[in-house]
Amino acid sequence: MNSDEATPHLRIERVVKRFGANGAAAVGGVSLDISRGAFFALLGPSGCGKTTLLRLLAGLERPDEGRILIEGVDMADVPPYARPVNMMFQSYALFPHMSVAENVAFGLRQDRVARREIAERVAAMLDLVKLTRLAGRRPAQLSGGEKQRVALARALVKEPKLLLLDEPLTALDRKLREETRYELVRIHERVGITFLMVTHDQEEAMSMASRMAVMNDGRIAQIGAPHDVYEAPASRFVADFLGAVNLFEGSVAAVEGRLCRIACTEADATLEVENVPALAMGRAVTVAVRPEKIALAAGRAPDAPNRVTGTVEAIAFRGEASTFRVVLAGGKVVRVTAPNVARRNDAIAEGGAVTLTWRADAALVLEE
């Protein structure tokens, strides 16, 4: 391995940023390495510090503690305009009096790039984002998705080493967001630049990023590939924030190798979980089960490692799937998501008795 491969493209070392008279930390000692060419997502709720961290990387804020290095170079004394970074803002910030081509060319003109090179690079970028035919239009004549692509082209045309994306799809409607996700991933693969995206949208982060970090209260709660973070959350916060999850409180009743039995009063059952590290008898734990891991049957169902009964309180039809709210005997509400395979499924109705089952390896034990 050569030194370039060993050095992270972006390294954040114990970065702290405080605001206000009381010095509250918006970013509280974050450390993070991002490899060259990655599509990395910072995910978290509003106020968790992710946008502040993005502004620190762009040089729009200065850290109170810690270091930010890009390709091994400390950015402490590098002003925003001199950093090998460009940022695509949530609002897109297009110049309304300029055409699409002029908006894309603006940064190159500021850098006094030769006119011929500007024309070539702008043409190539408009082709990349599929806006060549709209080069002469003004932003007011564009749709939301077209504006988003202009902003992306303007950010990429300067060939930054790191592109920062601040909630890039928030302004788009749902269908356009889904289409644009794939376009962004395609463009990332074409240009090979490191992308760092900030978002509060879990589906957005999981469908686009190769790696992600979940933030909470100014700190990183977990880092990993989207699939790994979703399937193996490190805490209650991550499990609850990243998609829907059912949480059952209980205590360890038995341990047999990697199989753990959890006594759970609110489920009126002993729940089985596989692949669990050794836990002390009687220890208080939380069992986490995703709604799509649970099978739903009208009336009784075959025996399974985990089996509880309840009554359907509500059904939410979502097109490709339906979500069922099932109330157990003790009042605990469990969410179940099932695909709508048939055109109609009237076997399960509101008020009906149902049985919920799931495999022992479909659940997870959380200790915090």
Explain this structure.
With 368 residues, this protein is an alpha+beta fold. The protein folds into two domains: 3-240, 3-Layer(aba) Sandwich (Rossmann fold), CATH 3.40.50.300; 244-366, Nucleic acid-binding proteins (OB fold (Dihydrolipoamide Acetyltransferase, E2P)). 24% of the residues lie in helices and 35% in strands. It is built from nine helices and 20 strands. A six-stranded mixed sheet has the order 6-7-8-3-9-10, sandwiched between helices. Strands 13-12-11-14-20 form a five-stranded antiparallel sheet. Strand 16 (306-317) and strand 17 (321-328) form a beta hairpin. Helix 3 packs across helix 4. The radius of gyration is 25 Å and the shape is globular. The chain starts with a helix and ends with a strand.
Give me the secondary-structure topology.
Blueprint: H1 3-6, E1 10-19, E2 24-34, E3 39-43, H2 50-58, E4 65-70, E5 73-74, E6 85-88, H3 100-110, H4 115-128, H5 144-156, E7 162-166, H6 174-191, E8 194-199, H7 202-208, E9 211-216, E10 219-224, H8 226-231, H9 236-241, E11 246-256, E12 259-264, E13 269-273, E14 284-289, E15 295-298, E16 306-317, E17 321-328, E18 333-339, E19 353-358, E20 363-366
Parallel strand pairs: 3-8, 3-9, 6-7, 7-8
Antiparallel strand pairs: 1-2, 1-4, 4-5, 9-10, 11-12, 11-14, 12-13, 14-20, 15-19, 16-17, 16-19, 17-18
Helix pairs in contact: 3-4, 3-5, 4-5
